[in-house]
Amino acid sequence: MRLIQGIANFRRLYANSIDLNTKSYLSTTKRAFCRSSEHAKVVNTTITCSPFYCSNNLGSRSHSSRPEMEGIEHRVIKANGINMHVAEKGKGPVILFLHGFPELWYTWRHQITAFASLGYRALAPDLRGFGETEAPDDASTYTSLDVVGDLIALLDVVAADQDQVFVVGHDWGALIAWWLCMFRPDRVKALVNMSVAFNPRNPNMKPLEGLRALYGDDYYICRFQEPGVIEAEFREMGYERVLKGFFTYRDPLPLLIPKGKYFGQPDTPISLPSWFSEEDCKYYLSQYEKKGFTGALNYYRNINLNWQLTAPWTGSKIKVPVKFIVGDQDLTYNGPGIKDYLHKGGLKKNVPLLEQVVVMEGVAHFLQEENPDEVNKHIHDFFNKF
Question: Which pathway is this protein engaged in (predicted)?
Fold first, then answer.
């Protein structure tokens, strides 16, 4: 019965017609009662929500009402020493959705409503440094241990009644999900990860040096390293163009961003695909205009530090049930040796409970936004086994 109702809701949610009538958005106050914890608690506050705005600032704005946004609630949790914003909807087994760069909780809007209709409780936080979640100044506090600590503290509050949860990750969220499964497999029931495969730690080479040797200094991860430099370039280019450039990037070749020469000519408009509208861009832009890109970029600036901190897990395997999904146009799928690693047993060796590798045809990096129906079906088919 739950599946039948869910299919009906899928058809309703993803109908071609979308109600774009403007209405005032709602202010909701939510008090959560949970078990006592020294490192995590709910901040009781009034949360103002709309597709364009979500914060604890009161006010009156208008927004377009869209089916995939209806009923999503927002609150702020004190977790691991920072204030974390989380979007949630539904009741039942928890699915924790982890976004990547330059995404926010918003990237999971299609999944949140769909899985709430299927009898799950969908949770999508803004990760440390992103969106409405606090962004510590110290770049070294964005390590694998910090971000996994955030998630454990968050789950201790929002999923206090569930020993294990389902997890879905994409991009940096996928990498964080691998770490979560490595450090705390006892908290994960099953994982669907997208775009970024698990790669075991190489004790003989720091990852940043390896990337620089393979792709050169203009490789985007290398360009993100020096604090303040790429932020200044992004400001000069304009955050709207930067966001549109990242979200519409479909070249399967490595992403190079030589100074002043990326995302086309500054006066050339960037055409948006049907799955990423001006309305979507406005939401992302509203968040990045408030705090800039530094918090998000700090994840890249800890790549070598993560390598050092994870030395005790050298040789460890991921020992939770996993399904991996990637688009065939994704640059992560077209890197050197990746296809052989995924399809000839490499990933299975390191993730022994891997059940399936799915390659979606004609889909690039942001697959959960580009083709939400198919992604949702893959996630549901897998989690429904448990």
Answer: Secondary metabolite biosynthesis; terpenoid biosynthesis
**What are the structure tokens assigned to 43, written together?**
């901040």
Among residues 126, 146, 156, 171, which one is catalytic?
171
- Tens digit of pLDDT at every position of the chain (386 positions): 433 344 344 333 333 333 333 232 223 323 332 333 334 444 433 333 333 233 333 222 233 456 678 899 999 999 999 999 999 999 999 999 999 999 999 999 999 999 999 999 999 999 999 999 999 999 999 999 999 999 999 999 999 999 999 999 999 999 999 999 999 999 999 999 999 999 999 999 999 999 999 999 999 999 999 999 999 999 999 999 999 999 999 999 999 999 877 777 677 889 999 999 999 999 999 999 999 999 999 999 999 999 999 999 999 999 999 999 999 999 999 999 999 999 999 999 999 999 999 999 999 999 999 999 999 999 999 999 99
26 in a structural domain: no
Length of the chain: 386
In angstroms, the CA 368 to CA 376 distance is 8
Asked if residues 215 and 224 have their Cβ atoms less than 8 Å apart, the reply is no
Angle at 220 between CA 218 and CA 226, to 5 degrees: 85
Of 85, 365, 378, 380, which is the active-site residue? 365
Helix (H) or strand (E) holding 247, with range, is helix 239-247
C-alpha–C-alpha distance, residues 307 and 323, integer Å: 25
Query: Both tokens of residue 266?
Result: 């500054």
Residue 68 lies in a domain: no
Asked, for residue 277, whether it belongs to a domain, the answer is yes
* 365 included as an active-site residue: yes
Q: Does 102 sit behind a cis peptide bond, omega within 30 degrees of 0 on the bond before it?
A: yes
**Could you tell me the residue range of the domain that residue 221 belongs to?**
73-384
CATH of the domain at 217: 3.40.50.1820
Distance CA 294, CA 136 (A): 10
Catalytic residue among 300, 333, 341, 378: 300
Measure the CA–CA gap between 88 and 97, rounded to whole angstroms.
10
Both structure tokens of 220:
């985007």
Q: E strand or H helix at 290, and its extent?
A: helix 278-291
Closest CA to 158 of 215, 263, 86: 86
Q: Is residue 49 part of a domain?
A: no
Host H or E run for residue 97: strand 94-98
